[in-house]
Amino acid sequence: MPAELGAIVYDHSSFYKGVGERIKEAAKEIGTQKEAAAVAGSSLAQFRRYMEGDQCPFHVVVALAVATGKPLNWFITDARNAVAHVQPVDMTLLAQVIVGVEQALKHRGQEWMPPEDKAALILEYYAHFERQQRSVQEVIAGTIGEKL
User: Residues in the chain with pLDDT < 70?
Assistant: First the structure.
């Protein structure tokens, strides 16, 4: 039976049917249903119920994802290219932002900042520098006073 979420109606049975279809697909990649059930740590009878759309425990989906190499969100969304939407972190840029923030704080005589505030500041500058192609030290040194 659908659950009301404000103006949105969410059909749980349809969701689990979709997950079940993807469990079937993953099981075929593993081999037999019996082999897939063993990988999932379930009895064959219970595994067949999952494939038919019964609510499935998370550990079953994780085991199937590991065995098939599929991303977890594929089982839930059928996003065939789900990992293509993940943006990698530019580690060099992140390091430059952290160093820039630390240097600017030290320059201002502020050796300590609450970790939550510092993390928010670093994330804000990281996002800014991903969009802009400017020198990290140049911009942080000139604007960090506005953020404190």
Answer: 1-12, 78-87, 133-148
Which CATH number goes with the domain that contains 40? 1.10.260.40
In this structure, the answer to whether residues 38 and 106 fall within a common structural domain is: no
Distance CA 137, CA 133 (A): 12
DSSP-assigned beta bridge partners for residue 10 = 3
- 101: nearest Cα among 128, 68, 63: 128
In contact, 117 and 147? CB cutoff 8 Å: no
Same domain, 39 and 105: no
pTM of the complete model: 0.48
Domain boundary among 32, 53, 83: 83
**DSSP letter at 31?**
S
